[in-house]
């Protein structure tokens, strides 16, 4: 198999594409290093795009703020209540960046340009590495760190490995998420979902976790999604083994298996969201529940000069 790296700008936004013989992975380098498309060749020799993304610059400008499709959510995923938080006796104020609540959402790196670092390929896979550095530009997060992400494409599988390094002089609180929207060529109403053993984070009236977890049974088996609306975070019970999240099409037999390397200072759950058009489903790896900068459950502390690694991926079967 031969791989190459191609540049296909989305208007003024840098977009790089890892191209294989029968697959492609698009990265919006100029905007959060977002996963923008994952195309594979089916058994019927038809190209199928398994990720929701942006196809033109006008569409991107119109809906990106509401979707954050494919973006790296750093240094906090999801909501931070009332756009403020506490750490070691100090109070920090973020920017309320949504109209529907007084919260701050999804951190900072999701809207920043990332820079190219390297590209390597073999006859089995290709890896694009890019990075972004944060120098405490916002007083609401006055810490200095770097995220270097390695996007690897195989024939019918991709993975994302993030290396997060504290390049500052003091300990840094950290959490991360990713925001891919997966699809199988039809509305999610006709698909089924299976989750590992997990518990759902209970939310208050402001959509902030209360600290309570409830056993999740709706998708314990390969269960039809139907018209169910989901916008919840699910925390895995067993952090000793990797169990995939399975999205299936019972009619065609096609499936996407999303996996996470779970454990301490790593992934611990998944946020799931079904958008109104029902054309895709967001399956978002999470290191912690939303509002982690306030409740500190599973909050990661990175010491100066130290790094953590976060690895997740997905594969397609038909």
Describe what you observe in this structure.
The protein has a nine-stranded antiparallel β-sheet with strand order 11-12-13-14-28-24-23-18-21, with no helix packed on it. A six-stranded antiparallel β-sheet has the order 17-26-25-22-19-20, with no helix packed on it. A hairpin with a 3-residue loop joins strand 13 (144-153) and strand 14. It has a single domain, classed as Beta-galactosidase, Chain A, domain 5 (Distorted Sandwich), CATH 2.70.98.10. By secondary structure, the chain is mainly beta. It has helices spanning 57-67, 292-295; strands spanning 4-7, 16-19, 23-28, 34-41, 47-49, 72-73, 79-80, 84-87, 90-93, 104-105, 115-121, 126-135, 144-153, 157-166, 172-174, 177-178, 181-182, 192-194, 198-203, 209-215, 223-224, 231-236, 245-248, 255-260, 269-273, 281-286, 300-302, 307-317.
Question: What percent strand?
Answer: 35-45%
Sheet with the most strands: spatial strand order: 11-12-13-14-28-24-23-18-21
Give the oligomeric state of the chains in this entry, treating copies of one chain as homo and distinct chains as hetero. Answer: single chain
Total strand count, please? 28
Q: From the alpha-carbon coordinates, what is the Rg to the nearest angstrom?
A: 19 Å
Q: Count up the helices.
A: 2
Shape: globular
List the helices and strands and how they pair.
Elements: E1 4-7, E2 16-19, E3 23-28, E4 34-41, E5 47-49, H1 57-67, E6 72-73, E7 79-80, E8 84-87, E9 90-93, E10 104-105, E11 115-121, E12 126-135, E13 144-153, E14 157-166, E15 172-174, E16 177-178, E17 181-182, E18 192-194, E19 198-203, E20 209-215, E21 223-224, E22 231-236, E23 245-248, E24 255-260, E25 269-273, E26 281-286, H2 292-295, E27 300-302, E28 307-317
Antiparallel strand pairs: 1-2, 2-3, 3-4, 4-5, 6-16, 7-10, 8-9, 11-12, 12-13, 13-14, 14-28, 15-27, 17-26, 18-21, 18-23, 19-20, 19-22, 22-25, 23-24, 24-28, 25-26
């Amino acid at each position: 198999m031969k791989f190459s790296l191609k540049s296909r700008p989305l208007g003024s936004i840098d977009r790089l594409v890892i191209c294989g013989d029968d697959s492609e992975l698009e990265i919006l380098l100029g905007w959060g290093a977002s996963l923008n498309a994952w195309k594979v060749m089916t058994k019927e020799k038809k190209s199928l795009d398994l990720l929701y993304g942006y196809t033109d610059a006008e569409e991107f400008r119109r809906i990106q703020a509401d979707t954050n499709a494919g973006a790296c959510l750093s240094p906090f995923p999801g909501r931070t209540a009332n756009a403020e938080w506490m750490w070691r006796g100090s109070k920090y104020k973020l920017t309320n960046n949504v109209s529907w609540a007084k919260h701050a959402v999804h951190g900072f790196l999701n809207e920043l340009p990332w820079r190219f670092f390297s590209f390597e390929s073999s006859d089995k896979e290709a890896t694009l590495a890019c990075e972004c550095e944060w120098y405490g530009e916002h007083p609401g997060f006055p810490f200095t760190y770097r995220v270097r992400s390695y996007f690897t494409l195989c024939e019918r599988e991709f993975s994302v490995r993030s290396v997060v390094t504290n390049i500052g002089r003091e300990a840094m609180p950290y959490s991360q998420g990713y925001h891919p929207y997966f699809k199988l060529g039809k509305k999610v109403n006709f698909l089924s979902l299976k989750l590992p053993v997990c518990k759902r984070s209970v939310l208050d009236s402001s959509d902030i976790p209360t600290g309570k977890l409830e056993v999740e049974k709706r998708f314990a088996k390969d269960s039809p999604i139907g018209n169910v609306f989901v916008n919840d975070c699910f925390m895995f019970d067993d952090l000793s083994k990797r169990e995939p999240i399975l999205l299936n099409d019972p009619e065609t037999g096609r499936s996407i298996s999303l996996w996470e390397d779970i454990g301490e200072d790593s992934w611990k759950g998944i946020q799931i969201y079904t958008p109104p058009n029902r054309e895709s489903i967001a399956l978002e790896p999470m290191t912690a529940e939303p509002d982690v900068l306030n409740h500190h459950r599973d909050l990661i502390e990175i010491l100066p000069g130290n790094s953590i690694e976060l690895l997740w991926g997905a594969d397609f079967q038909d």
